[in-house]
Amino acid sequence: MAAMTSSAPQKTDSQQSQDVRVHFDQLVRFGRNLAVAAGVPLPEAETLAETLGWCDVRGQQTQGFYLLPILLKRLRLGKLASPAEMRWRKTAPSTGTVDARHGFGQIAGRLAMDHALRLARETGVGLVAVKNSSHFGAAGYYAARAAEQGFIGFAYSNSMPKVAPHGGRHRLLGTNPFAFACPRRNAPPLIIDLATGASAGSMVSHARRMSLPLPAGIALDSAGDPTSDPNEVDGGGCLLPAAGAKGYCLGLIVEILSGVLTGAAVAPNVGSVFRDLDRQTRCGHLFVALDVARFLPPEQFADRLEGLLMALTAVAPREGFTSVSLPGDARLRCAAEQSTAGIVIPDYLIKSLTDTARELGVATPWDGDSSASS
Question: What is the pTM of this model?
Answer without folding.
Answer: 0.93
